[in-house]
Design goal:
30% helix, alpha+beta, seven-stranded mixed β-sheet, 26% strand, ph1033 like fold, 6 helices
Length: 178
Amino acid sequence: MPRPQFWVIKASLESVWKFHWNDYFERDDDPLEWGSDCIGSKTSKKLLREDIQVNDIALCYQVDDKAIWALSQFESIEKANDKEDFALCHHSKAFQLTKPLYIDELRNNRCDPESFQQGGYGHGTIGPISQGEFLGIIQTIRDLLPDQWDELHEWLLHAGIERIGMKGYLSALLEADV
């Protein structure tokens, strides 16, 4: 089974870090860094230590809103001793949705990723998104935010989506009626 290359990162104003994804796009400084002190889940730390790689795609999910706000990429991952730290790319390289994509909208479009369900990966800061789930999310964005589709398609190509054999599927979505 191929390793996931898509992940959800959950932020919350109720967490220790008290973070909202709007803050990511209002920053002027370097890439957004998260450290072990912001991640309590042993499962999330294990994913960082063993599975997540630089350039993997991250869905920026706000727990308080139950919505995806953006897509980004892991820029760096540091694994030393008992610490697992990572940085997302600078916000100027991320893809911000013009409006949040609510989980209910995904579910209404027959897309219900496990990482957004209760139990399983639903409680950790980081969770995997399968290729099929990711494509369902992208299709929902295409259907609900058609004005952003061309830009998102280009962002995904720039993010290296063709290296995992998904370019043809995205091209088919591009050609489909919106």
